[in-house]
Amino acid sequence: MVRSEVAGWNFQWPYKVVEVEDGAEKTVDDGFPGREYVDALRDDRSRGASELARQALSDLMQVAGRHPATQADQLKSDLLAIADALCRARSSMAPVQNLVGEWRRTVLALDADNIELLRRAAIHRAEDLAAASLAAVETIGALASELIPPRSCIVTHSLSSTVIEVFRHLSEHSVRVIVSESRPLYEGHRLAAELAQLGIRTQLVTDAQLGHFAATADIALVGADAILRDGSVVNKAGTLLLALAAREAAVPFWVCAESFKRSALDPGEFPLAEMSGDELGAPGFGGVRVRNVYFDVTPPHLVGRWLNESSIAEEEPSSGKESKPC
């Protein structure tokens, strides 16, 4: 066994012994798939929280099916460890914590006597959770589209699969959408392209113009990476500025987020990921620290509506219904 550092956590990776030509033996990587999945999840900047949670579940299905273990207890132990590593890789994304955490609790409770039954049960549970996530997104899309009047102008920030689903339902409603670029990696470009494919009239603006364009919209609509205990919204940095601009212009600010995004944490407890300042492309200044915090927290008094797959709330969601994380 060898230890590898993954997102601040020591993970044991299975290795095997091979014989070399001179008769000596050495330990080499056996190609076990867990590491590549954790690294890919950690480094993915192009997808939103729900998509990444479903990707993590897909990764766990792959590992459960491909793991070279011959003993059920070894398989179970490694699956649980990989689930922990996936959670730690994206600690700022509540659906990763909650969906993978739910899968982990199921696997933890499984009997480790029969390896094939363990494999199948782990795969089926991941499939069920991914299907539930997709169904929740579809339900929110349909629900939100019923609340947004035809020909509305909607301003949004960042990339959310849930918000995209709302726009799919609105594609025949003659809505117009204002999309921010969402620096530093410009997720808004992908969203604008998808909206154009849906035939929705779209304007792409810089993040700095959100204050101006929010006043021209009928509704501000965003997704979320997490909904905290008090109803605060964790989302891509810039969401708070959009919410403030919307309030100043008397534009309703709505949040679409599946119940899987509920967190038991308070705003001061939730980890806000910070990425490399190199992503900003700033020149090297002596004595200047370049900051690149990816998320901000929008307080509940700025939110007009929270929409999930089972309810519409116009006051802070109850703190007693959050999912259990990893």
Quick tags:
Rossmann fold, three-stranded antiparallel sheet, 14 strands, globular, disordered N terminus
How does this model look, in words?
This protein is an alpha/beta fold and 326 residues long. It has 2 domains: 2-135, translation initiation factor eif-2b, domain 1 (Four Helix Bundle (Hemerythrin (Met), subunit A), Up-down Bundle); 139-313, Rossmann fold. It is built from 9 helices and 14 strands. The protein has helices at residues 34-43, 49-66, 72-89, 94-109, 115-147, 161-170, 187-197, 210-214, 239-248, and strands at residues 2-6, 9-13, 15-19, 25-29, 153-156, 176-180, 201-205, 219-222, 226-227, 233-236, 253-256, 295-298, 305-307, 312-313. The two termini are 24 Å apart.
Topology:
Elements: E1 2-6, E2 9-13, E3 15-19, E4 25-29, H1 34-43, H2 49-66, H3 72-89, H4 94-109, H5 115-147, E5 153-156, H6 161-170, E6 176-180, H7 187-197, E7 201-205, H8 210-214, E8 219-222, E9 226-227, E10 233-236, H9 239-248, E11 253-256, E12 295-298, E13 305-307, E14 312-313
Parallel strand pairs: 5-6, 5-8, 6-7, 8-11, 11-13
Antiparallel strand pairs: 1-2, 3-4, 9-10, 10-12, 13-14
Helix pairs in contact: 1-2, 1-3, 2-3, 2-4, 2-5, 3-4, 3-5, 4-5, 5-6
